[in-house]
Amino acid sequence: MASVAKRADGRWRARYRDGAGKEYARHFARRVDAQRWLDEVTAAVVTGQYVDPKAGRVTFKSFYAEWSRRQVWQSGTVLAMDLAAGSVTFGDLPLNRVRKSHLEAWVKAMTTKPLAPSTVKTRYQNVRSVFRAAVGDRLIAVDPCAGVALPARRRAEAAMVLPTSQQVGALMAAAEPDFAPFIALGVFAGLRLGEAAALQVGDVAFLRRTLRVERQVQRASAGKVEVRAPKYGSERTVYLADDLVAMLAELVARRGIKGDPAAWLFVGEGNDPPHQNTVGHRWRQTCKRAGIAGITLLSRPGAQCRCCHRSGSPGRSPNPSCQFLGNGLSTVAALRRDSWVARE
Predict the structure, then answer these.
(1) Cα(84)–Cα(64) distance, rounded to whole angstroms?
(2) Claim: this prediction has a pTM higher than 0.70
């Protein structure tokens, strides 16, 4: 039910009832303005875009706290979402008062901080998922994130700096005996940091020269680690070069864990596998001893190896030459497999 009526004071009152029977009204100086507003509301109701004017009064912070509790997220996603939502500059604003300009100011603040363009984009996408949820819950009519410009990112091939084989050889030579195999797994098997950290003895089939990726390590709170399945369903079998198999066999023998399939190949604090901070510390020490700077250990979930992780066959070598291993330990993993010089 909707109507426009003239009041005693000469103003025009437009009113309507929503689907729940609740009445809303606004007053205008001109009838044409009252009718236009009523037509807009009616159109929104007909097209399914109607939103209760009072629904969006909840703040961004309050809505996120309530909405996030209902989501089925992995612990890593919880941390990323909490970080993004906690970084906004409009957390105390009602949802229906957040404008595109607020998002632009927040993006500008992150860029000035400065944060990397990829980090800015990730936080923006996480926050946008909150606004889309608010639209889905009919708290706001439109997503204010639409059209917000983000800082340009360099193309991966332009940003990638490939270390020379001499640099890789220096890093392998400078690494401690139980850390060199970790580096080698990124260079020559394309494992991500968390995947290499989560390897157990039973994951390596030494005679078949294969390795099974079944899990990954992620850092939890208070220095603890969480072991869970790899992201994006990336469980897989990786074929290993002969020298890498020999290096892993030496590691198992040196640590005295042969015959214990559940033993971690690499250890951090206590009996836990190492997390990202532990590995990063050892990597920086290795770089310092090797006299090399500018090469970083990174985990890049979701990237794919361009040629090494294709299925093998009985009539083909299980160790094909790889032009780029783009899903391992950042620039180190983007070397040609046949340029391994560490054991020369």
Answers:
(1) 11
(2) no
Instruction: Provide the edge-to-edge strand list for the sheet that holds 210-213.
Output: 204-205, 210-213, 236-239
Q: How far is CA 59 from CA 18, 56, 95, 194, 217, in A?
A: 23, 8, 5, 37, 35
Residue 319 pLDDT exceeds 60: no
Q: Is residue 115 part of a domain?
A: yes
Q: Which domain holds residue 310?
A: 158-339
Number of domains in the chain: 3
- Here the tokens at position 181 are 């195999």
The pair phi, psi for residue 237, each rounded to 5°, is -105, 130
Separation between Cα atoms, residue 332 and residue 180, nearest integer Å: 13
End position of a domain, from candidates 103, 132, 153: 153
Residue 138: CA atoms inside 13 Å, Cβ hemisphere, count?
9
Written as six digits, the tokens of 83 are: 């970080």
Each residue's pLDDT tens digit, 276-302: 888 999 999 999 999 988 777 654 433
Q: Which residues pair with 225 in a beta bridge?
A: 219
- Residue 237 bridge partners (DSSP): 212
Residues 295, 243 share a domain = yes
Q: Where a domain ends, among 50, 68, 85? A: 50
Residues paired with residue 27 on neighbouring β-strands, in sequence order: 13
Is the per-residue pLDDT at 91 higher than 90? yes
| Structure-token pair, residue 54 | 């009072």
* Segments of the chain assigned E as strands: 2-6, 12-17, 23-28, 204-205, 210-213, 216-219, 225-228, 236-239
Q: What are the tens digits of pLDDT across the range 100-158?
A: 999 999 999 999 988 989 899 999 999 999 999 999 888 888 899 999 999 987 665 55
